[in-house]
Amino acid sequence: MHLAFPSRKTSNPPQYLPSRTPRFPTLRRSRVQAFVVGALVVGAVLWLISSISGGGERIPSGTPPVVIVTVVDEESYGQAYVKNVKENRREYAKRHGYTTFFPSVGDYDLGGSPVSWAKVPACRHAITKFPHTTYIWYLDQNSFIMNPELKVESHIMEKKRLESLMIKNQPIVPPDSVIKTWPHLKGENIEFALTQDKDGLAQGSFIVRRGEWAKFFLDTWFDPLYRSYNFQKADTHALEHIVQWHPTILSKLVLIPQRTLNAYNPAYYDAKEGQYTDGDFVVRFAGCDTVGRDCIKEAEPFSKQWRTIFYAR
């Protein structure tokens, strides 16, 4: 029987082999390090300069700060009425360097939902069409801008102005909704401004700040799930639903006094704090498309009035 013996170690171990010479000499390596450090320093300086000078997105020269979006329905209201509405918006926009966007109610696939939903994809479309504009102002077709001197920025959206206008701790759906507007909201955090009427959120005139939050908000509002709920007031009730159930939206929303942005025709609205008064920014004929009312007739006296104000010289 053979026994296994451990192999014998040699008494002459191999000599120590030094490690390879570095690929880069020490001098060259120090130069690379110096270059990297220098690049980082230059990058930091450029970032600092950019921050001091405004930084962020660079808005091309000539970009309108506000786009007024109005979805028009010429088939139902007639060419003359729609032409009048467009002229009103264009004349106002011209004074302040704004622009207008007039998609048709038939431009969007609403999947069988009421046509009032068209405002939502229209605003989303405007964000794509005007990628550098700061504010999207949606203004319903059944309304006129009445005070051409007021600017969206200074009259409403400037931070301090918003803080002076905001209605804090207000039930989203009056009079007793348990979900209320935030009491400590700051002007710089606001992305969405609108008003209430006596029934709830009034989305016939609202302003949204263009950006990623606005895209998220509009996409959420237009979600097929909400459109399939068959809310009694369609997009209005859907908006109230998502505002109350999504803190991400509520935390960026501000309610402002109704007459600041969305005064109603006093002949058909009995809440005095929301009735149009001469000098107000906007008048809307809210509900004029319901049985027993006529939008074209209701618009006539205000049409004459806005023309007198705008073209007075």
UniProtKB/TrEMBL annotation:
Gene3D superfamilies: Spore Coat Polysaccharide Biosynthesis Protein SpsA, Chain A. Residues 1-23 are annotated as: Disordered. GO terms for molecular function: alpha-1,6-mannosyltransferase activity. Keywords: Glycosyltransferase, Membrane, Transferase, Transmembrane, Transmembrane helix. One of its GO terms (cellular component) is mannan polymerase complex. The chain crosses the membrane at residues 32-50. GO terms for biological process: protein N-linked glycosylation. Pfam families: Glyco_transf_34 (PF05637). Belongs to the glycosyltransferase 34 family. This is Galactosyl transferase GMA12/MNN10 family-domain-containing protein. It comes from Amylocarpus encephaloides.
